[in-house]
Specification:
With about 200 residues, this protein is mainly α. It has two domains: about 5-65; about 70-200, Orthogonal Bundle (Tetracycline Repressor, domain 2), CATH 1.10.357. The chain contains nine helices and no strands. Helix 1 packs across helix 6 (about 115-120). Residues about 1-5 and about 5-10 have low confidence and may be disordered.
Amino acid sequence: MDGSSLLAPARGRYDRRSTPEERLRAQRSRLMHAVARAFVEREPSVSRVAALARVGRASFYEFFDDFEHALAIVRSLSVDALERGLEAALIRERAPVAALRSLTQAFLESLQRWPEAALVALASDGGETSPLGRSFERALRSWAVSSQSAGLITPQGDSERLLLATGAAEAFARRVALRAAAGGPEVVDAAKQLADALLRLLR
């Protein structure tokens, strides 16, 4: 996301056609993007968020209790968006290999839409995998059950292999999201690379 879009409009520059409710939603959205950016910059503070969004600290507290509260909302939004994309991907394709590539495509597209929020959700919360990783693991498990029925993969060591595959997907996802957050070049054929690696791990 272009950093300039984090900024509040200058005094008197608000779109007068928008309602007060719309302006509040826009301000909340700018603040959440600033929260995610502050997390990625490793400056997790309300002061940094206010500076990024060019608003006063009081504006932040109109919407959030503290930085962690705002961060939890950003994390939840990222996970919810990913899960919707993964669910649609599993429905879209039935053939096992095509379904896996559809799954990795949805995963990576979700990261690139809001990479800073994805990096928030890819951070460890003390579990074996991150919140975003757990969502991907559930979708991958669903795909694996269907693929076993089709004879593509064998059922031995399911939990361990799924954990290993999820860890690999998380590491790759961080690379993709970090590049996107920095405005760098996209990883070439990222979805195919990830799908091929997961297939090798899970067969």
